[in-house]
Amino acid sequence: MSGLDEDRVAGQQRRWLEAERTGDVVTLDSLAVPDFTLVTPDGDVRTREQWLARFAAGLRITSLEWEQGPLTVLGDLAIVVGRQTLRGHRGDQPVDERCRASHVYVRVSESWRLVGIQLTS
Description:
Nuclear Transport Factor 2, Chain: A, 6-stranded mixed β-sheet, 3 helices
């Protein structure tokens, strides 16, 4: 495990957080691999396209807090565990989600890309 790898994954994690907060679909798209998968707190499975389409479908995030937990790098795979609190709205419906999250990254060439996110209430 390299401190440089941990720093790079942490940097990608910061990019994800800022992109989520601002609805920056272009950055989110660049972070995710084509086969990205999201598992929602309800256990639903979403594709990369569905994940990215949330903002076009009316999701507006007013606050997103991330409490960093362990960041583990194992070769070309990295897992980041934390807690997130998201507030906002989907259309006119309020959103208030608190959950544990596991983010999985894979090294692609010299970059770390997001493979999946698992959310648990």
